[in-house]
What we know:
Elements: E1 2-6, H1 11-22, E2 28-31, H2 39-48, H3 51-54, H4 60-64, H5 67-72, H6 76-85, E3 94-97, E4 100-104, H7 108-112
Parallel strand pairs: 1-2
Antiparallel strand pairs: 1-3, 3-4
Amino acid sequence: MLKLYGIPNCDTVKKARTWLADHKVEFVFHDFKKQGLDESTVSNWLQQGDWEILLNRKGTTWRGLAEEVKASVTDGQSAMRVMLDNTSVIKRPVLEKNGKLLQVGFSADAYKNITF
């Protein structure tokens, strides 16, 4: 099953959802603001991808974190704690299929190269 993780009002997530719909790709949307995220999901992503790609240090959520919290993020484990406590700090959207991380963020070119 193809699953798109994000928040519905994020412009990048909107672009990804539109692209998938326009290309008739069936997917389930997981709103991690409302539905949350569990540790096993984030841990699975971190086993497949670099934590620095998953952690969005450019967003307002990251900028709003206390300096001590930002300084504490030094590896995947510490990044996971911050991501679970502040899901908006995760780069969006996250696209996975049957637990396999396919793409972090949206790029039409990248999506074209994914085998759905």
